[in-house]
Each structure stands twice: as structure tokens, then as C-alpha cells.
Write a structure and sequence with these properties.
The structure holds two protein chains of two kinds. By secondary structure, chain A is mainly alpha-helical. Chain A has one domain. In chain A, 65% of the residues lie in helices and 7% in strands. By secondary structure, chain B is an alpha+beta fold. Chain B has one domain. Helices cover 45% and strands 18% of the residues of chain B. Chain B contains two helices and four strands, in the order αββββα. In chain B, α1 runs antiparallel to α2. Classes of the chains: A mainly alpha, B alpha+beta. At the A-B interface, α1 and α3 of A face α1, β1 and α2 of B.
């Protein structure tokens, strides 16, 4: 049961981070034409993998994407954001499904 | 911040795009509004947007007005022409307006898509159950 709870904690963290990524992507896309706007990215996978392997706390970081800017000082790449959005949506779905599966295991264990 | 932030962020994009499209509509509709030289002529409207300070989307910062000097056109038969036979047309470039319209339309479509996708994503989370 400890394994299940650990898995739930990790999935919970991932779900939060994915939510944040989705929000940042929405923000990048909403500012697709805003002069001077710099796109941001959310990273958490390596930190989470490290925390699972070696213990410790995983962190989510939001950093500038750092692509070259266009004439109006904006560096949002629409195709890149759209691709990342689709990927993030699928990840969100799969983490949500995994959480339900882990909860089912926990529920079975609790009710005996 | 709302409970479903991605949806409201996409909403701010849609709002700005809508204002942008409206201003283009106004510019095109008034592009041929000739006046007697010296009278105030229609000025091109350009929407100015900036990233929302809270990092939650895009915000309308204002509308910049184009040149107040129109384009002098020789049209002596026009009843509003001045003594020299000139009328003044607004400084609206239809090519520029049409290009902006395409950009605004793509932007609107993409923001609408993000809104739709965010809804699907939040739904997946709402369906988590024990």
C-alpha cells in the first residue's frame, strides 16, 4: 500500500506540473502577437524522475524558452506550442487515468 | 485566477482578437470616407495589446490612431472637392488591413482551439475517481 501512496503522490505532482504547463502554453498562445512577449516553458520531468529514484523533493520550474525573436521582439512559435499542447493534453489524460487506477487499487486494499 | 486558468487565459486572447477584428472592420468600412481637405479625416485604428501583468493572458492596452493627414486625390467632379479640385481620403492601406485580418483570424481560431482543448483536459481531471 505504501507503493500505491507513493505512486499517487508522484502522479499528483505530475498532474499539477502538467496543469501549470498547460496554463503557460495557453498564455504563450494568447500572446502570440504581443510585441516583446517572450515564450515560457515548464520543466519538471527530470526533477520528478530524480526525486523518485533518489528521494528528495521534485520541483517545477518556469523558464524563458529562449528562441530567437522576430521583428516585433516576440518569440512564440505557434506550431511548437500547438504540438506541445496536444502532447500535454494526452499526458494529462494518461496521468488522470493512472490516478484513477491507483485509487482503485487503494480502495480495494482498504475495503479488503 | 479562476479554477480553470487555461480557459480564462484563452478567453483573454479571444477578447483581444475580437477587438482587433472589429477595428479592422472599422478601418475597411471607412477607407473610402472622402472629406473636403481641411476637415477631420478618418484615422486608421490599430489595437495595441500587451502581456497581462499577472502572466494570465493578454490584455488590451489601447487603440493607436493612424495619421490624421489623409491622402489628397484630384477629383474635381466630386461635390465636396475644394477649390483646387482635391478631396482627402483616410490614410488606410487595404493591403495592410487584409494582412492583419488574416493574422487576427488565425489568432482567433487558435485561441478558440486552446479553449476547447483546455476544456477536454479539465474534464479528464474531473473524471478521476476512486
Amino acid at each position: 500500500m505504501a507503493d500505491t501512496i507513493e505512486a499517487i503522490n508522484a502522479l499528483n505532482f505530475a498532474l499539477d506540473a502538467i496543469q501549470q504547463r498547460q496554463q503557460v502554453i495557453s498564455n504563450n498562445i494568447a500572446n502570440e502577437n504581443t510585441p516583446g512577449y517572450q515564450a515560457q516553458v515548464v520543466t519538471f520531468e527530470n526533477s520528478l524522475a530524480g526525486a523518485i529514484a533518489e528521494g528528495g523533493t521534485a520541483v517545477t520550474s518556469v523558464t524563458p524558452e529562449g528562441l530567437a525573436s522576430g521583428v516585433n521582439g516576440n518569440n512564440v512559435s505557434l506550431p511548437a506550442e500547438l504540438a506541445l499542447e496536444s502532447q500535454t493534453n494526452l499526458e494529462n489524460q494518461s496521468v488522470a487515468n493512472s490516478l484513477s487506477a491507483q485509487f482503485a487499487i487503494l480502495s480495494a486494499a482498504v475495503s479488503g | 485566477m479562476s479554477m480553470f486558468p487555461s480557459i480564462s487565459i484563452a478567453g483573454t486572447g479571444l477578447e483581444v482578437d475580437q477587438t482587433w477584428i472589429d477595428s479592422i472592420g472599422g478601418n475597411v468600412a471607412n477607407a473610402e470616407d472622402a472629406v473636403t481637405p481641411g476637415q477631420p479625416v478618418y484615422r486608421e485604428q490599430e489595437v495595441v495589446a500587451g502581456a497581462s501583468s499577472t502572466g494570465s493572458g493578454v490584455a488590451l492596452e489601447g487603440v493607436a490612431l493612424g495619421s490624421s493627414t489623409g491622402v489628397m486625390t484630384y477629383d474635381p467632379g466630386n461635390p465636396i472637392a475644394n477649390k483646387q479640385g482635391y478631396v482627402e481620403y483616410p490614410n488606410v492601406n487595404i493591403g495592410h488591413e487584409m494582412t492583419s485580418l488574416v493574422e487576427a483570424q488565425v489568432s482567433y481560431e487558435v485561441d478558440a482551439k486552446v479553449l476547447q482543448n483546455s476544456t477536454t483536459a479539465y474534464n479528464a481531471i474531473l473524471q478521476i475517481k476512486a
